[in-house]
Amino acid sequence: MLNRSKSLIRPRSFRFKLMVTSIVCILLPAFITLAVYNMLTKDAVKEEAVSQAEQKLELVDGFVTNLFHYMLYIANNVQNDSEMNVILKAIAAGKTYEGPNAEYERYMDRTKITNKIDNMTVLGDKAYVTILLKDGTYFANYPLYEYNPNLFREESWFEHLNLLKGLESSWIGTTPTVFFQDKLRSPYQISMARTLRGGGVTPYGYVIVTILEDQVSSVFKKLASEQETMLLDGNGLILSHPNLERIGGEFPYASLAKQQDDPDIMRLDGENYIISAHKLPLTGWELVSLTPYKKAVFKLNAIFNRVFMFQLISFFIFLLLFVYLIGTFTRPLVRLGRVAETVQRGNLEVRSNIRGSDEIGYLGESFDHMLDRVKTMIAEITMTQARKRKAELAMLQAQINPHFLFNVLNSIRMKVMRKGDMDSAEMISSLSKLLRMTISQDKGTIPLHEEVDTIADYVKLMNMRQKEKVQLRLDLSRDTLMTAVPRFFLQPIIENALIHGLSQRAGMIHICSEATGSEIRVIVRDDGQGMDAPELEKLRQELMHSADKEDKSIDTGGKFSSIGLSNVFERMAITYGDRFSMEINSDAAGGTEITMYIPNQEARDDV
């Protein structure tokens, strides 16, 4: 073992140079690919996080815009209702109620105005509507003991209403709630106002629509807890916020955004935030949301990290397999070098015994023939020495013990399971079982249930190679499970079903068995692409004469390959003789069914 290690790491060894060169050629582009992948992953994560923040803010924008449109709708109705305007203009012009029905007429006018205001707000969100006339008359849809509407005239913004023209509106913003019953629930309110004009320029009244601030901030609270959303006026003052203490404070979004290199990421108090902003054209205000960047990308990073770890593990498994294969392929060269060293020390009896159809096999055979000729020439020249009997020394080949390979695969599988990658663990388990079945040559026949277990692992591995999965359905009679069958007699048939029948698409493969007297019947059925009648008949004829033909390649239009099927038929015929028979049925639209009749006998360990 020590000598083998020294030969492996020998600086001038061809094997060492080949391995190092191959590994460098693999690692260098792999590391470059991983670096580029990591960089692109960060960009993709950032873009996705920003997109999600924008989508959430768009939902908020729609709700808030609809709420403000609702306020504007109420003001438009008051201004455009002809019956209401006639009454309001008459009252503002000093209409007097006289006669025996004066009070009734006064009552009816007020009732009409009040009912119209109530009808405007009965189906929508809660809104307080106030109509003020120049003569001091007012109308409202709320109890007057809660608030005297004429107090609006004392507000600082009220005089600005006279400067409005046509359908212009004044969005007053956030002010303390004036309605007694709603102060505890919402300390702030948001109002808009519009002037009422007749045919002249001078307004005869004003309409004021008010909603509570919590009607806006309530939708902010429904977003994810880590996302902070606020409503700002044109000066950066906070009009609405889930935290009442922030209302009236300043958030200079515009000036902060200009200082940032990245318009989507803003750094506040030493932490990065994803910032999104939507302008509200109706009011000139702005919706702004802040989301901590780390929390926004946490879930996305977790997904990308799992994919990255899977690729990294797969790469190292492939690298180990590659190193193993390179070592296996170059092992004859190392062996030939050892033989040359032995000959150099004077031992002409040693032979490499390297054979094969490639260049290394030819070199080994030529080297052995050269040694034979050298020895013959020495014997002819000396003539005094007795011809020594050639002794062939059995060279120990460094082979990996199959049990060691299985143990290594199981160790890898356990590590993968501990990391939570159950799909990779299941794939390694299935591969280990197939390797064990392939390498173990001490059994010529095995029980039918072992053969079916091998096929199940084979289908699992094939499913992991292709996007669409194939379902394997087993329907085995208990009386047939211990029947001795040749190893891998089902695998070529299943492979044909996967590649030619289902064409690597999703589908069903059904294996069933049943005992019928002195024989068992094994049926393999798939629901993939079958064969039409001429192709099926051609396959049957070729299969019947396959034992007498040297060329086993049968072309059936690319839908079904009988190479593996012929091998199965010949193996079963050799094993069971005339007692074995096979039937093939297929339909171009209904799949293919292969039925095999096998003599029933107990499982045995024949070689």
UniProtKB/TrEMBL annotation:
Q: Which InterPro entries match?
A: Bact_2-comp_sensor_kinase, dCache_1, HAMP_dom, HATPase_C_sf, HATPase_dom, Sig_transdc_His_kin_internal
Which spans are transmembrane here?
20-40, 308-329
Q: Which UniProt keywords are listed?
A: ATP-binding, Cell membrane, Kinase, Membrane, Nucleotide-binding, Phosphoprotein, Transferase, Transmembrane, Transmembrane helix, Two-component regulatory system
Record keyword Thylakoid present: no
Which part of the chain is the HAMP domain?
327-379
Q: Which Pfam families match?
A: dCache_1 (PF02743), HAMP (PF00672), HATPase_c (PF02518), His_kinase (PF06580)
Output a single Gene Ontology CC term carried by this record: plasma membrane
Provide the topology term for how it sits in the membrane. Multi-pass membrane protein
**Which locations, inside or outside the cell, does it occupy?**
Cell membrane
**Sample GO molecular function, one term:** phosphorelay sensor kinase activity
Query: What name appears for this protein in its UniProt entry?
Result: Two-component system sensor histidine kinase YesM
